[in-house]
Amino acid sequence: YFPNAEFYGIEQRKDLVEIAKNAKNISETSNAYFKHGNFTQINFNDYKSIYFYNSFCENLVDKEVLCDFNNSGDLIDMAHIDDLLEYSLSLYNYYSNYLHKVLDNMPSGTRLVTFHGSEIEVPYSYKMVEEHFDKELRFWVRK
What we know:
Largest sheet: 4 strands, mixed
Strand content: 25-35%
Number of helices: 2
Strand order of the largest sheet: 3-6-8-7
Number of domains: 2
Helix content: 10-25%
């Protein structure tokens, strides 16, 4: 728990944003904020640390896919949360490339945490400094 830090989240599904806000209120958390939108609308220059849970995988197939997030050979069964959004391989590629470019343009010292992320999305300008849970949770620092 970091009472002096602020945490921001963005989600495309309005109902999930409302669930997050309700959880915040129930838990009496005062330093977490949730926004309805797409991560491509964020000005990443406002942040020094980024946590990324790979949500792009749901774009890879029509309904369900097995994803190897950490290139370990361990496949995770993924499915669409709902049918409210458009899903496509082109969106997966767009989001992955967008994130890669944003991360590569962050200043030295930027901290990144990935959970179920692909190393492909993390630029070579980042050094992995720690990993846990069979490489599912990784900590990076921008060189």
